[in-house]
Structures are given as structure tokens and as C-alpha cells.
Amino acid sequence: MTAITSIKIQTSRLRTHVLVSGPQDGVPVLFIHGNCSSARFFEQTMAALPAGFRAIAADLRGYGDSEPAPIDATRGLRDFSDDLAALLQSAELGLKGRVHVVGWSVGGGVAMQLAIDHPELVGKLVLEAPMAPYGFGGTKGTSGEPCFADFAGSGGGTANPDFARRLKARDASEESATSPRKVMNDFYFKPPFRVEKEREEFFLAEVLKMVVDDAHYPGDTTTSANWPGVAPGTRGVNNALAPKYVNLSGFAKIPPKHDVLWIRGDGDQIVSDTSLFDFGFLGKLGAIPGWPGDDVYPAQPMVAQTRAVLDAYKANGGSYREEVLPNVGHSPHIEAHDTFVAEIVRFFG
């Protein structure tokens, strides 16, 4: 898209691929992508912002065209958030003051971690279909209590091995339910929604740039004596999402200076209280044998966990608004583009 410039910026942490648009002195907005995607998923959103905004979108390490530095999962999301903090303070971007942040999916968690650790850099926050504050898998209840002490059911071992194999092989087919193209169309969006063919190929090419190994996606694996038999390792992104290492409940206690817009689709199958990627819910459906039952391992209430943390933030003087878009899946900025842009522009003022 001609209004967007692609650059690479060397920070103290890594060489980051960045998309920028808008005037140098515009109101800065940082877009953070999620797992199995890249900054280019935000190009249409960036191009649609009115004059006066400066949009910035970066590929996280291991994604898109950024340097594939390894991911230390024991730091939770901090490898990503610290990378972005270094980027925002780079002389090449030349930013002054706070930056508004839009975080999608895992990017929503990264945005919250950025606000927790670097509050002086962050203005308003848009959490778009954000991951739960207690990570992905292995917890129950709105306070994120672990189902088992070793956080079984989360981490690198939860990724579908055939999906990971197809990613590594750069499989562009649609021959299997685990083909990246099929997964994107079935779960990033709410069927029958589908982007136009040329754009689909563009998105898929970005997904297939992901680094697939133990240090990136999905990460290393550890076996567990507890159901479903896997627990978090120490490397890679899916382990970084494990509740053993990530806990964003501290967002509720930061200075209440970051107004929050939480925007999500009512048809999201990825981040949901009945997520089709959560072992607890899959076990209840009978898709994974040996499920120990609701008392031991219920479905993770991802949406309810997010709402509980944001309610606590509000009780401490913060502000948030929840916007639920009808007939939309996991990607409101793509599926309901015009509505999404209008919402964030109004929110940023």
C-alpha cells in the first residue's frame, strides 16, 4: 500500500521490521499483531486512519521480517514488550511523549505488559480480541487458578503438530483442517467471511514467514503426569503464553492513566470462554480423551478473566469500555474494518 513505508530499525535489542504511515508530528499509534500473523495484517487499518495520525506497526521477533531473536518463555511476554519499548525510544522513530497502542490477540497481552513495565511510554490502549491476562490454557476461574501445579495443558506442547509441520514446510494448500490457509479462514475470521483472494494470498505469505522451531513457534515441550500430558517448556512463543510465566493481573494496579477500549467479536473461536483452542473445552467436547471433568479442568473463562482484571483496574480509578461486534470472529479490524477504524479514531480523539 503506497501510503505505508517499510523500514528496518536496529535497536539495542534486535533489528526490527517496521511499517510507518502518516506525518512525523502526527498522533502516534502503535499496532501490535498476534500469534501466526505479522504487522502487515494492519496495513488496511493504518491506511484508513485520518490525517493527523502517525501509524507504526512492528513485526515481533520471530515473525514477518524482523530479526528472529530467540524467545525466552520464562520472561512471559517481556521479550516482546521490551523489544517494543526499545523501538519506541529509538532515535529513528523520533517519537515524543506517549504512544497510543492497539494490541490484537497475543498483541493485546503484549500491550498490557508494555503498560505494566513501561507506563511512561503508553497513552490509551485498544485491546482487540486480547488473550486472557492469565495466558492461554491451564487455568480456571476469573482469578486464573492453575488446574494443576505444573500448568499442564499450556505451552509449546499444545500446538497441533501437523499445523506446525505445515507452517515449517510453507504449506499454502487448503487440503487439511490443519493447513495454515484453512486455519486462518476458519478461525481468524468467522465463516463464511473471507477476504478477497489477492489479500488472502498476501496474509498467508506473512503467516508462512514465521520461524518454526523450539526457540520460536511453538517452542519446546515438556511432558506431564497430569491431563492432558503436556506442560510448559522454557523457550518459544506458546510457552511464553503459558500461565506459568505470564500474569497480567498487575495491570489492575498500575497508575490509572491509560483509558482502555476492549473490542472483540461475538463469534471469536480463539479467545473465548468456550475456545476451540483450549484443552479444557476440547476435553469437555470429547475431542481429547481422559478429560478429568469440570471440577478439575473446566474450560478457561478467557473473556471473564479479562473482564475481571479490567473491572479491578476500573475500581482502582482506571477507565475501560467493552465493545462487542456482532457476527465477527477473532479479527475485528479485518472483518468489521470500517466500524473498527471509526471506534479507535473516536476513542483516540
Describe the structure.
It contains 11 helices and 14 strands. The chain has about 350 residues and is α/β, with parallel strands linked by helices. Strand 1 (about 5-10) and strand 2 (about 15-20) form a beta hairpin. The mean pLDDT is about 95. This is Alpha/beta hydrolase. GO terms for molecular function: hydrolase activity.
Structural class: alpha/beta
Number of helices: 11
Question: What is the radius of gyration computed over CA atoms, rounded to a whole number of angstroms?
Answer: 19 Å
Low-confidence stretches: none
Beta-strand share of residues: 15-25%
Helix amount, in percent? 25-40%
Total strand segments: 14
Question: What is the H/E order?
Answer: EEEHEHEHEEEHHHEEEEHEHHEHH
The biggest sheet amounts to: 8 strands, mixed
Strand order of the largest sheet: 1-2-4-3-5-6-13-14
Overall mean pLDDT stands at: 97
**Shape assignment:** globular
End-to-end separation? 25 Å
Q: In terms of quaternary structure, what is this?
A: single chain
